[in-house]
Specification:
Number of domains: 1
Number of helices: 11
Low-confidence stretches: 1-13
Number of strands: 10
Helix content: 40-55%
Shape: elongated
Mean pLDDT: 87
Radius of gyration: 22 Å
Largest sheet: 6 strands, antiparallel
Amino acid sequence: MLARAGTHNLPLVKPPDPKLLPADLKAALGDFTSDVEGGPFQDYLATLEAQAPPPIFHYTRDGGLKGILESGALWLTDAFQLNDPTELTHGVKLLDDVLVEAGANGPSELRVFRDRMKRFVDDGGVPKVAHYFVVSFSVLGDDLPQWRSYADDGRGFALEFEAGKLERAFAQPRGGPFNTATFPVSYDEQQIAGFYRELVQLVAPLVSLPHQRRMTEEDLRAYFFDLEMRFTLAALYRNLFFKHPAYSSEREYRFLQIHQAFAGKEVDAQLRHRGEELVRYRTLDWLAQAPQALNAVIVGPASVGLPGPALRAREWLDAAGLPDVPVRNSAVPYRAFET
């Protein structure tokens, strides 16, 4: 079965060893993990799984196309280093709002839990929970805003892939244990807030469970570390399926890798420069694993009528061993940005 939306229950974090933790607390933590892997969010994932994957498009500059064809790879960028830094923090803010709302109407322990989570986020703890790498496509194949935003103001190219074939290659484990998911991104804030409320309802009893027990400080730390990691992992996983409504016109289709974050274990990633910043990335070797997934290369609307771009694309495709992949022109009437 193709892993289009699921985590396969990999243990993504290694909490401190709670040797003296009461058996019922250990059982409650396990039950929490089982519970968050069911319910409305899993029903939502099932609806995504049932959908036939559409053609997907990756917009890029001239040099980007050349690199993708010469290397045979697509870059999966560290999700915490995406171009838009608010992409994940927006979802974290929504989660905090839900925690504040629940704490105002629930036990005092829940308000303390919210404060602990806020300190965890403010101290930069979220990127340490797990390693997330994403590559983005769109289901829109000849879209002027994306030509302008991601393809050098219409002078670049779009690669059209058959999503199903690319997904099958993406789901094959290479380079160590990790989970994969491929899915259309949602922009529905009410829906993600609902999933967060479900998550908070599940965690609330566990937050209060150690109350009035005689437990060592070490065991309390171990218990709440474990609980916070499980909660954060579940929240972040939900977060990655959603984006701010302002981006809804992009109709993003996302490929996601989730890597274990054992203490002291670094994920196998490469580094590239983006301005003065070093950005972590991994590669999807699509040309070696699924060369038949590339359906076409589309010349951007600002380059239609110029002989050079189409000829270069044809040359790069032939050199990559893809002589049968067509090069076609964008059908979008082009008008440059006014200055």
